[in-house]
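Progress against Task 2.4 (sequence-to-structure conversion) is shown through the following example record, which the project officer requested during the mid-term review.
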Amino acid sequence: MANYQPKSLLALALRAGEIMLKNGAETYRVEDIIDRLIKAGNIKEVSSFVIPTGIFVSLTDTDGKVITRVLRINERTINLDKIAAINDFTRNFTETPCDLVESFNRLNQIDQEKLKYGRFIRIIGAGIISSSSAILFGGPLANFAPAFITGSLVQLGSQLLMKRKLPLFFRDAFGGALAALSSLLITHLGFGLNPGNIILGTIMPLVPGVAITNALRDAMHGDLIASTGRAMEAFLSALAIAAGVALVLSFWY
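Structure tokens generated for the chain above:
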């Protein structure tokens, strides 16, 4: 094991934990990453506590001095590539002594990496998921193309709103409203047979599946506060989608 300055090592671990948490990692996984990185520097006493909106870490250095840091997390998304990259970084850091400056540069590089798939691929992917879901939920084949179009439009709108950094609730509400409006308009023009089925397929890419899964995994791991927070986040996201759809339907009918 290499000897690192405790404060620098703590800053490195916080940076890695921040990237993990804001890209959709489970809280227990973030805590494990932080503990592994800090213990790689011959520091035995370390305690980390992670919730979806913050990281709390405390360690005791070789002189018996306690160092504590708190980091607030203000934005969250889903990027499994970055989570995998941090896992690889941690494995390499704990197995082989690394320069802290180079390690910080590597973390910054991971954080600044763009999405693996570009905007066009994500739009097409959302269209495929929407159209396939519409058929999967019992819709006729005539709804495949309309659901593809509406799903692509909703994904495009979500990407534009994401750039403006609007709260997740309003982005999901807009996505639900756009899904309902575009589905109703496209069936009104003679394409598709069942607007309800098209709406159902279109909102599937918006459903917070990862948040629900992480809430369950945190609960099974015993992180009750984190699991409750993630479950509430998933509930509010689903509520926003439903509210957007209901608002459009109430005006249309």
